[in-house]
C-alpha cells in the first residue's frame, strides 16, 4: 500500500472513530457537548433534552439564564418572517408562510437545522446527526420544541421535530426547551492532532539545525 493510500485510510478510520457527523455543516465542539453549524453560524447544545418541559415563558427564562460550556449568551431558537416583513400564520406546505412544513430557510433556525443541515424531509425525522433527545418513541410528531418567537396573543411558535412542522402552540403548554447561541466556540484539538502538530514542529526544528 502506498503512503498516500495509507494516509487516506488513516484519515477515514479517524473520522469513524471520532464520531464526527456525516454532514460537513455540523461539527462537534467541546468534546461533543456542543455542535457548530457552519451553514447557519449557530452553536447548539448536543443534548436536545437538556431544558426539559416548560411553558414558553419559562423556557425563554431558562435559556437566557443558562451558563453552559463557559458561555452565558444562550437563547431559544427563533423564527423571523419568511417574507421579511411580518409573520404569516397561515398554513403552507412549501415554506412560503411561517406555519407548516418545508420551512427550510435561514429565517427558521429549527427549520434550517432540520431540513438543510440534518437533511431531513417532511416525510419525517430520519437523520438526527450528532444530537441526542430528538426522538420521542411515544409521539411520532414530537418532541415539540419551543422557539422564542411569539405568535398570536397567548400563542408561541414551536417546532414539531418528528415531522418537520412549524406551528403555533398555546404559550402555557409544556414543550421542550433547547438552547442555541450565535457563533462558534473554540474547538479543543484532539490528542492525536496535538501529537501530529508536535511531530511537525519537531521535524522543522531538526531540519533547521541540520542547515
TrEMBL record:
Keywords noted in UniProt: Signal
Superkingdom per UniProt: Bacteria
Endpoints of the signal sequence: 1-24
InterPro entries reported for this sequence: Ice-binding_C
The name this protein goes by in its record: PEP-CTERM protein-sorting domain-containing protein
UniProt organism field: Roseateles saccharophilus (Pseudomonas saccharophila)
Amino acid at each position: 500500500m502506498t503512503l498516500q493510500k495509507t494516509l487516506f485510510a488513516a484519515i477515514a478510520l479517524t473520522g469513524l472513530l471520532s464520531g464526527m457527523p456525516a454532514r460537513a455543516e455540523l461539527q462537534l465542539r467541546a468534546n461533543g457537548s456542543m455542535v457548530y453549524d457552519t451553514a447557519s453560524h449557530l452553536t447548539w447544545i448536543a443534548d436536545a433534552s437538556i431544558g426539559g418541559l416548560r411553558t414558553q415563558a419559562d423556557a425563554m427564562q431558562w435559556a437566557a439564564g443558562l451558563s453552559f460550556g463557559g458561555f452565558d449568551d444562550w437563547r431559544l431558537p427563533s423564527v423571523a418572517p419568511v417574507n421579511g416583513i411580518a409573520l404569516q400564520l397561515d398554513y403552507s406546505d412549501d415554506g412560503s408562510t411561517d406555519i407548516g412544513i418545508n420551512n427550510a430557510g435561514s429565517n427558521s433556525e429549527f427549520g434550517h437545522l432540520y431540513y438543510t443541515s440534518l437533511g431531513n424531509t417532511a416525510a419525517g425525522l430520519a437523520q438526527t446527526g450528532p444530537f441526542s433527545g430528538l426522538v420521542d418513541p411515544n409521539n411520532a410528531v414530537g418532541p415539540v420544541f419551543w422557539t422564542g418567537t411569539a405568535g398570536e396573543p397567548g400563542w408561541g411558535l414551536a417546532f414539531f421535530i418528528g415531522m418537520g412542522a412549524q406551528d403555533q402552540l398555546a404559550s402555557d403548554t409544556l414543550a421542550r426547551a433547547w438552547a442555541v447561541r450565535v457563533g462558534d466556540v473554540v474547538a479543543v484539538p484532539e490528542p492525536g492532532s496535538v501529537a501530529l502538530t508536535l511531530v511537525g514542529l519537531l521535524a522543522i526544528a531538526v531540519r533547521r539545525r541540520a542547515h
